[in-house]
Task: structure prediction
Amino acid sequence: MKKRLASTIMLATFALAGCTTTGGMNNNADNAIGTANEIGMNVFKSAIDNQCRSQIEKQNAWRVASMAMTETQQETVKSNVCGCVSEQAPQQVTIVELGNAAIDAQYRTQLVTRVVAKSLQSCYASFAK
Result:
């Protein structure tokens, strides 16, 4: 009887210790997933910023306005506008779209182009005032 009680106590102790360890492991897994999502979002925002800068330079309005600016002023405006576009980007995509973009480079290019097109005009207009 004493051996059974001792083994039951030991088993309960290991089980409870296992629960504690599992919680820690899940927390680490959650942190890893959060970090992976953050890295993915940073890569996505970087692609958005690059596409935004490219699209700004193609616009006739930018060509005219930039003639009256120094290079420093042009860079400041591009940084402000594309920063705005990059900040709006996560609100315009779903996690499924981001997952597809991570897997398929062609899809990623299309997604980035679509997101930039949606945001560029509104951000540009807000900084052109």
About this structure: The first helix runs from residue 2 to 58. Residues 81 and 121 are 9 Å apart (CA to CA). The chain has five helices and no strands.
